């Protein structure tokens, strides 16, 4: 089982990469999955060449294969002009052009970083629609980290909840109310509605 983190941070060190690493570590703690990070910044030239020529270089092709083959995906972008970065979008444009079914049914955790909490709606207004269009299964909890969130209350809890939801989708276990994976689906007893109704009626 493996998790791929797609990080579109541009700086070094990057708060975007840091958020991706924390989400991956929390998810791996639930699943035992291996983690690979794709730094989109390092693929910028290859992405531009692919958009004009239609052919990915070796490094970009390897990254696209890793994303397509992941059991779970964590995507993290900085916010630019109230949306995801152009480089982030271009990476997934290339992926979709190469294989329109690459993310179909794949569990995806969306996350973003920005300078102010006012941009937190990017998760629901930009990222979630993008990955729904690509037919991925987006976990209910997205994680946004503004500058003031680092070291403050709330971010660790959101990180753990989102990671638990991603782990639940990856392992086939229902998530508990706190977001952590619950029992395996095989351990659950399903009682048909008609039988439940008959019991209620005595």
User: Spans with pLDDT under 50 lasting ≥5 residues?
Assistant: 183-188
Helix content: 40-55%
Oligomerization: single chain
Number of strands: 7
| Measured distance between first and last alpha carbons | 47 Å
Summary, kept brief:
With 202 residues, the protein is of the alpha/beta class. It contains seven helices and seven strands; from the N terminus they run βαβααββαβαββαα. The chain starts with a strand and ends with a helix.
Written account of the structure:
With 202 residues, the protein is an alpha/beta fold. Helix content is 45%, strand content 18%. Strands 1, 2, 3, 4, 5, 6 and 7 form a 7-stranded mixed beta sheet that branches. Helix 1 links the parallel strand 1 (2-7) and strand 2. Helix 1 (15-31) crosses helix 6 and helix 2 crosses helix 4. The model is unreliable at 183-188 (pLDDT under 50).
List the helices and strands and how they pair.
Blueprint: E1 2-7, H1 15-31, E2 34-39, H2 44-53, H3 58-69, E3 72-80, E4 83-84, H4 86-98, E5 107-114, H5 122-133, E6 137-138, E7 143-146, H6 155-171, H7 193-201
Parallel strand pairs: 1-2, 1-3, 3-5, 5-6, 5-7
Antiparallel strand pairs: 3-4
Features:
7 strands; globular; alpha/beta; 7-stranded mixed β-sheet; 202 residues
